[in-house]
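Narrative summary of target 7.
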Amino acid sequence: MAPTSPDTSYSVKEVAQLLGLGVGQIRRYARAGFVEPERGPRGELRFAFRDLAFLRIVKGLADARIQPQRVRRAIESARRRSASAGAHTDLRLDSAGSQVVVREEGGVWNAESGQYLLDFESGVTAPATVVSLPLRSDAIERASVAMQANDWYDLGRALEDEDPMRARDAYQRAIELDPEHGDAHLELGYLDHAAGKLQDAVRHYRIARIALPQDPTPHFNLGVALEDSGDAQGARESYFEALRIDSGYADAHYNLARLADCAGRATEVVQHLKAYRKLMGK
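Modeled conformation, tokenized:
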């Protein structure tokens, strides 16, 4: 699949399709500072090829059943070690079996333990999958906080189906560490909405909307919560905002058709239902 932009950069959705990663996962890695995508003309994230190379390594380690928390800790440890040693070049990161390793001119060392590996131990014979990562102290500090928050968020997602109360606690912990953790606010909004706590749901969705400006989901969810609260106009505006970000968000068209029907705007009902059916292939 080729990128749609002539500058050879990739959108979040394109990266997700190319690598088989979730959109939320990709955004979390960007917020943690592990990749530093550019911003497009509408403020959207645009990823360079070297960002894809790094994310591919992360996915490979995940496919090898290495927990995301361990991957993050390994990368943070490697960055800290190189920075404390006064390194002025980028980290050259690679994967070797179940290990995250760092390449230097003098050899290869384990990113988690800092121990140098012999050639036969490293399992790395050719630089087939190497990516350079910037060694910036502010990125390291930001990544440390984001990693901890993401660990709690990941725990919340794992618990949400079987134990919503513990999941809520995990999301709250993520927000304590990172007050702008959009994904945690989004999940808390969903839990509050399901529990009938509409004001709390609206508050979390509004924070998520700011933290995730190019994700239509917070806008759509906010629209549903506002609609359930009796604010039809606010809901309508939120659904339109979701469509501005993603014109293919079929459910937003459907809900706008319903609101238009309640308001007696027949022409608008037809327009949105037509768009909904086209998107749904009906």
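The domain at 1-63 is CATH 1.10.1660.10 (Multidrug-efflux Transporter Regulator; Chain: A; Domain 2).
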